[in-house]
What we know:
Layout: H1 7-16, H2 21-44, H3 47-78, H4 82-86, H5 89-106, H6 114-121, H7 137-146, H8 148-172, H9 182-193, H10 206-235, H11 256-261
Helix pairs in contact: 1-2, 1-3, 2-3, 3-5, 5-6, 7-10, 8-9, 8-10
Amino acid sequence: MEKFTGLREQIYLVIFETDTRAGRAFDVWLICAILLGVLLVMLDSIPGIHDDWGAWLIGGELVITVVFTAEYLLRLYSARRPARYACSFYGVVDVLAILPGYAGILFPGLHFLSTVRILRLLRIFRILKLVQFMGEGSNLWLALKRSRHKIIVFLTTVLTVVVIVGSLMYLIEGAEAGFTSIPTSIYWAIVTMTTVGYGDIAPKSPLGQMVASLLMVVGYGIIAVPTGIITTEMMRPPAPKEGEACSCCGRKGEPDSMAKGRGAP
Length: 265
């Protein structure tokens, strides 16, 4: 990997390295800028505040946009592989945080167009820039990755239940009670199983109400399943690396080839 010296290396250490004092200060400053930018977007969506403070909000939006533009250019300048960073997830998020701001500034007379409104709304995606500062989220991601097969089985089971119950309610209630189609009935089953209960569709017949009651009880039991699966994986200690002792059994880790020879999965 290419190594830089001088100013470029110093910028790289500040922007990409978080274990230095300057890097931590830069991260805190950037988090504050992100939260401020998102707050401006939210305030701008309130008609009363927009009418009274619209000019100040536009000025603040311009400052935030310029700040994020400078940050993005510095990242491209100091990155080891600028093209790779530009195409990465965080690189795309940085672009989403910049372009909508310029769209609102360059086309002020076209705000009534839905496409431009959508671009301006994309400024809210600045909150995604916070993802790169959530290092502790790696534990949750690892737990989700470990339990993905169990979660897939769980979701498949839930999908099967709502399809069966939705189809059954379509036959029991019919269009008179609002169950106009099987997809609509499946929507009702999902809302009922998750205990959301919008109330826009409700069974009228005693048999339909009995099925709904059973589905509600099943829903309460199902809600706890993914929580238990993920919690179990989060509590599991990480696999020891080669030469390290396991925190549970004290056995040292072995190379993959030896582990497979012992019949390990």
